Amino acid sequence: MAGSTEMASLEESFRKFAIYGDTKATGQEMNGKNWAKLCKDCKVTDGKSVTSTDVDIVFSKVKGKTARVINYEEFKKALEELAPKRFKDKSKEEAYEAICQLVAGKEPINVGVTKAKKVGAVERLTDTSKYTGSHKERFDESGKGKGKSGRENIVDTSGYVSAYKNAGTYDAKVKK
Question: What is the pTM of this model?
Answer without folding.
Answer: 0.60
